[in-house]
Structure formats: structure tokens, C-alpha cells
Amino acid sequence: MIKEMDLQQLLNELSSESAAPGGGSVAGLAGALSAAMVSMVCKLTIGKKKYQDSEDDMKKCLENVTKMKEEFLLLADRDAEVFNDVMEAYRLPHGTEEEKAERSNAVEEATKRAALVPMDVLRRCETLAGLTRSVALKGNENSISDAGVAAVMAQAAAKAACLNILINLSTISDEDFKGKLKTEQENVFKTVRDITEEALQIVKQKI
Fold it and tell me: Taking CA 144 as the corner, what is the angle to CA 138 and CA 148, rounded to the nearest 5 degrees?
């Protein structure tokens, strides 16, 4: 599991010829890194007299982002698992017409599952983006650049998730599934991008 690897092990695994973990897992890791930065800003704000008015908001933010950090890590692992499921489906026998049909159906269903994992990452990025904006607005200004990094990483996670959604959709034949997921992907990413850009503008104004 990715969360059990040290940094060097993770980098070695990502840079190896193995296709999983790959970009989808990196999307989840980027989300976890963003959440970690939000958490840090919250902790550097809570208990400070100067930010007493922000205390309740930062505590709520910390509670939410702590949970999200773990969810992103789980999704990073899940992405590698579903990719392996797709590969297993492709390895099914396909000598007869019946086998070909069964294999085709198995590949389709596995690829749908593979598309839904980065979509879960993207959905969480929408919530995460709002938290990066909150710490940019109300967090300890000595850590304002860290709030900015959180926003950058949240947007990076969202972009990476989108690429992995799209690559999976490109091989799916179910047009209804493709259309619905692509529309949601476009709408959610636009929201993430807009919020994180707003957070970055706040950061730039305060630096």
C-alpha cells in the first residue's frame, strides 16, 4: 500500500516500468499533500490570540481536512488496484466469440470502475479547494505561502484526476456513462479551478 511506503520507496515505485501506481495514484497523493498543507496552516492558527475570531472555522477546517487526507491516500491505492483489474480483464481468453464477448464486457466494466476512482478524487478536490480558500482568508498570515501551496496542489490533483478520467473514458463504449461522467468532470474541475485561483489571488495580495 502506498501509505505504508517511505518517500524513497514511493518514488522508486512511481519511476519504475510498472504502470501502477501511476498518474491516478499521483492525483490522490497531490490531494493528500494539499490537505496536509491546509492542516498545517490550521494548526498554526488555532490557539493564536490574533486569530481568535477564526478559531472555530479553523477547527472545523482541520477536522474536515484530516479526514480528507486519509481519503486521498486510500484513493491513491484504489487507483492502482482498479488499473490492475483492467489489465486482468484484458488477459482473459478471447479465442471464441463467446470468450471475446465476455472479455469485452469485463474490460468495459473494469474500465468504468477505473474512471470512477479519479472522479472520486476530483469530487473531493472541490471540497478541498474551499478549504484552501478558507485558510488563505482566515489562517495565520505567517503561513500564507503554505496556504498558496495548498491551493496549487489541490488544483494539480484536480487536473491530474481529469486526465485519468478522460483516458479511461476514451476506451469505454457506453455513451450514456461517458457523457454523464465527462459533463460532471468538466463542471467540477471548473469549480475547483475557480476557487483555487481565488485562493491564490488572496495569497498574492497578502504576501
Answer: 105
Fold of 20-206: Four Helix Bundle (Hemerythrin (Met), subunit A) (1.20.120)
**139 CB-contact burial (10 Å; exposed 0-12 / middle 13-18 / buried 19+):** buried
**pLDDT per residue as tens digits for the range 173-207:** 999 999 999 999 999 999 999 999 999 999 999 99
pTM over 0.85, yes/no: yes
Collapsed DSSP state (helix, strand, coil) of residue 77: helix
Contacts with 130 (C-beta within 8 Å, 6 or more apart), sequence order: 195
DSSP string for 10-68? HHHHHTSS--SS-HHHHHHHHHHHHHHHHHHHHHHHTT-GGGGGGHHHHHHHHHHHHHH
**What's the grid cell of residue 29?**
497523493
Task: Dump pLDDT digits (tens) for 45-73.
Answer: 999 999 999 999 999 999 999 999 999 99
Q: Among positive and negative, which fits the CA dihedral 172, 177, 178, 181?
A: negative
User: Whole-angstrom Cα distance, residue 96 to residue 75?
Assistant: 36
Cis peptide before 21 (omega within 30 of 0): yes
* CB contact at 8 A, 158 and 189: yes
